[in-house]
Specification:
Elements (H helix, E strand, L loop, with lengths): L6 H11 E3 L13 E3 L2 E3 L3 E3 L12 H12 L3 E3 L4 H9 L4 E5 L5 H14 L3 E5 L12 E2 L2 E2 L5 H11 L3 E6 L2 H10 L3 E4 L12 H12 L5 E3 L6 H9 L4 E4 L11 H21 L13 E3 L3
Helix pairs in contact: 2-3, 2-9, 3-4, 4-5, 5-6, 6-7, 8-9
C-alpha cells in the first residue's frame, strides 16, 4: 500500500488489503438480523450520523430516515435543529442522536434531554469535532466547541438515561476512557479524514476491542461501500457498521433508492456469510480474514 496523507484513501486501501477464505462444508443459509438496545433490525448495515442533507436533496434528513425504516435498520443523525430531529423520529426510524461537543455543557445536556423526550433509542457525542486544524477549538456554524474530559463525559452518560455512544474513537486510549465514563457504545471513526494519515478504523478495531472486551457494542464508520466491506468489519468484531457518503448521491432519487442500496449491501453481506460458513452475526470468525502480503 502506497501511503498518502488522504485518510479516506488509506482506509480504502486497507479494506482492499484484507482477503477472505471460503468455508462451504456444513454451511447454511445465513441470517443478517441484528439485536441492539432491545430492538431487532433486519441488517447490521446502518445509516451514518449525517447532517445538513437539505443541501443534497429536498427534506434530505427525513428522506434518509425513511430509507432506514424501509430497510429495517438503525438510523443515526448528526447536527440539526430540534424540529428536524422530531420530524426524523416521526418517520418511525429507530434513531440514535449524535451531539456535537458544544463548549457550553448546558446545551449538550439540553440536546440530550430533547433527544430522549423525542424518542431516540440512544444518544451520544461526536468527540472528534472538538478542535480545528490550527490547534484551536472548533466552531461549527457559529457554535463554539470544546474538548471534553472523562468526568464531563460521565456526566452526559448519567444524564441520558438511555444508551450513550461516543463517536470518533480511534485508539485504545480513548476507548478505555469511554468505558471509565460508563459509555454503552463506541463508533470507531476518523470522520472521513478529520486528520491526515489517520489509522483506518478497521485497523484500529482489534486493539479497541481488546480494551472493551466486547462488553459494549463497537461500531465501525468511514469508507464502507459494499456488503463485503461490512463483512470484513463484522468478522473482525464490529457489532454493526454505518454507511453515509456512499448513500448520499442516492438521496435525490428518494428514500426507496437509498433503502434499495442498503438492501443490496445486506444481500451482498449475506452472500459472503453463506460462502464463508457464517450462519449469523453472532458466529462471525476473524480467522476468515487474511492480510494480503503479496
Amino acid at each position: 500500500m502506497q501511503l498518502t496523507s488522504n485518510s479516506d484513501k488509506i482506509t480504502r486501501d486497507y479494506f482492499d488489503s484484507l482477503l477472505v477464505e471460503t468455508r462451504y462444508l456444513d454451511a447454511v443459509l445465513p441470517s443478517t438480523q441484528l439485536t441492539l438496545f432491545g430492538e431487532t433490525f433486519r441488517t447490521p448495515i446502518m445509516t451514518a450520523a449525517l447532517s445538513h442533507l437539505h443541501n443534497t436533496a429536498m427534506n434530505g434528513m427525513t428522506v434518509y430516515a425513511k430509507a432506514a425504516v424501509l430497510s429495517g435498520t438503525v438510523h443515526w443523525v448528526g447536527m440539526g435543529s430540534d424540529e428536524e430531529l422530531e420530524a426524523i423520529v416521526a418517520t418511525g426510524a429507530k434513531t440514535i442522536k449524535i451531539i456535537k461537543p458544544h463548549a457550553d455543557n448546558r446545551e449538550v445536556l439540553r440536546k440530550i434531554e430533547h433527544a430522549v423526550k423525542t424518542g431516540c433509542i440512544a444518544v451520544g457525542m461526536d468527540i472528534d469535532h472538538a478542535f480545528n486544524s490550527e490547534g484551536g477549538y472548533d466552531n461549527i456554524f457559529g457554535l463554539p466547541m470544546k474538548a471534553k474530559t472523562t468526568a464531563e463525559l460521565k456526566e452526559f452518560v448519567q444524564a441520558a438515561g438511555v444508551p450513550f455512544i461516543v463517536k470518533g474513537v480511534l485508539s485504545p486510549h480513548d476507548a478505555e476512557k469511554c468505558l471509565k465514563a460508563g459509555c454503552t457504545g463506541i463508533v470507531v471513526s476518523h470522520h472521513h479524514g478529520m486528520i491526515q494519515y489517520a489509522i483506518p478504523p478497521l485497523m484500529a478495531l482489534p486493539d479497541i476491542l481488546s480494551v472493551t472486551d466486547r462488553s459494549i457494542p463497537v461500531f465501525v464508520d468511514c469508507g464502507i461501500e459494499s456488503g463485503m466491506d461490512a463483512y470484513k468489519c463484522l468478522a473482525l468484531g464490529a457489532t454493526a457498521v454505518s454507511v453515509g457518503r456512499h448513500l448520499m448521491p442516492l438521496l435525490k432519487n428518494g428514500a426507496e433508492a437509498v433503502a434499495g442500496r442498503i438492501d443490496e449491501m445486506t444481500a451482498e453481506l449475506a452472500g459472503v456469510m453463506a460462502r464463508t460458513g457464517v450462519s449469523s452475526l453472532d458466529n462471525m470468525d476473524s480467522s476468515i480474514i487474511h492480510r494480503r502480503t503479496f
